[in-house]
Amino acid sequence: MQHASCRFPNPPELGWEGFREQTTGLLSARRLRILSRADDVHHEQANVFTGVRKLSDIRTVFNPETVDPQGAVIIHRLKLTYFTTENI
Length: 88
Hints:
It is a single chain. By secondary structure, this protein is an alpha+beta fold. Helices cover 30% and strands 36% of the residues. The chain folds into two domains: 9-44, no CATH class; 46-88, no CATH class. The chain has two helices and two strands; from the N terminus they run ααββ. The chain has a two-stranded antiparallel ribbon with strand order 1-2. Strand 1 and strand 2 form a beta hairpin.
């Protein structure tokens, strides 16, 4: 299998060897490895939590024989959103 090479019109300021050293240093940074691993562990689950919203409604209860309200019912709903990998 042949790989396409990347061609730049001008070499980087430090030359290609300097560019290679900086890139290698960046990619081997401990913090980057830890963040990469944490992201990997976070997305191992089939369902990944992405958000939540609480919805509340007030519903009036009327007397069937009159038009006067007799009370109210408060309904709370919790809407969870998530990303799933099950259908991929």
